[in-house]
Write a structure and sequence with these properties.
Elements (H helix, E strand, L loop, with lengths): L1 H27 L2 H9 L1 H8 L4 H50 L4 H21 L1
Helix pairs in contact: 2-3
Length: 128
């Protein structure tokens, strides 16, 4: 419990200190941040760019993720998945072009095809 109260007090003290420094820099004496930026340009640039966290995050996570997504889209989706789907569609279209010739609409042609199929099946059963 004593450690918790100490940490609570330290957190409140640091928070109030930050509020005081912000008030002092930006309300009471606004020339101080400009002088500090001129005196410590590297530190100012580091803080201005938020420790370059966004740049590092983009370089390590966002850009590789976008490249992976682009690869998956161009190769896996467009070439493989779309290729399979379009190939199945083309196969059915080719099959329908062949079967269109066979389908005449006449019952006697269908009866003849059934008779021929029956003869082939019986012939296969006899010879095996």
């Amino acid at each position: 419990p004593a450690l918790e109260w100490f940490l609570i007090g330290a957190s409140v003290f640091v928070g109030l200190g930050g509020i005081f420094v912000a008030y002092w820099f930006y309300i009471a004496r606004p020339e101080i941040p400009a002088r500090l930026a001129q005196r410590f340009p590297r530190a100012y640039q580091l803080l201005w760019n938020k420790y370059y966290v966004d740049e590092i995050y983009n370089a390590l996570l966002i850009n590789p993720g976008q490249r992976l997504a682009m690869f998956l889209w161009q190769i896996v989706d467009v070439k493989i998945i779309d290729g399979v789907a379009n190939g199945i569609g083309r196969a059915f279209a080719a099959t329908s072009r062949v079967l269109r010739v066979v389908q005449t609409g006449y019952a006697r042609a269908y009866a003849l095809a059934m008779l021929a199929g029956t003869v082939v099946v019986i012939g296969w059963l006899i010879t095996r």
